[in-house]
Design goal:
The chain is mostly helical and 163 residues long. The chain has helices at 14-32, 64-80, 84-111, 125-151, 158-161, and strands at residues 39-40, 54-56, 60-62. The chain has one domain (14-151). It contains five helices and three strands; from the N terminus they run H-E-E-E-H-H-H-H. Helix 1 runs antiparallel to helix 2 and helix 1 (14-32) packs antiparallel against helix 4. The longest helix has 28 residues, at 84-111.
Length: 163
């Protein structure tokens, strides 16, 4: 259960602000994946898989599944921003998940460019590079925000709780 220091209505810590911002960006990207103009070839969007011809910003291949995953991840980030612990978990574990997606997408493309059924989201080379950047960036944000809080005596670690 969240303590009053972690709950809504109190001043947000940097890690919470970062989780909120990342969540809002993912939510926005998920919405833009369904907006003509932001997504080229929206009339040729697929439900899932590598055969969707829709391209977000003309660069990133998207499908309905891909956009829904962005929406869900964004909602998770916004919800996680309610507490410091959940925010840290969202940024750290979410970043790790995106690094795994980078590895997965890279392997899928090294075997077969389209990737067949394994390319479920779909992933193209631009998506893979973006996943690398997002994953590394989110993990870095989790680590740096924790370091910032420790430096300012705000981190709720064992040393502050006398354990």
């Amino acid at each position: 259960m969240a303590t009053s220091a972690e709950g809504v209505g109190t001043r947000r810590r940097p890690v919470q602000v970062l989780a909120l911002l990342v969540g809002v960006v993912f939510l926005l990207v998920g919405v833009l994946g369904f907006v003509p103009g932001a997504t080229d070839g929206l009339d040729r969007i697929g439900i899932a898989g590598p055969h969707s011809e829709a391209m977000l910003f003309g660069v990133f291949q998207v499908s309905v599944l891909h956009n829904v995953l962005h929406l869900l991840f964004g909602a998770a980030g916004i919800a996680a921003a309610r507490t410091r612990g959940a925010s840290r978990l969202f940024l750290g574990a979410g970043g790790f998940l995106y690094l795994l997606l980078w590895v997965y997408g890279s392997v899928v493309h090294s075997v077969d460019y389209d990737g067949g059924a394994a390319n479920f989201a779909p992933f193209n080379p631009a998506d893979n590079l973006l996943h690398l950047g997002l994953g590394a960036g989110m993990v870095l944000l989790a680590v740096l925000s924790t370091a910032f809080e420790r430096a300012h005596g705000q981190y709720p670690g064992r040393e502050q709780r006398g354990v």
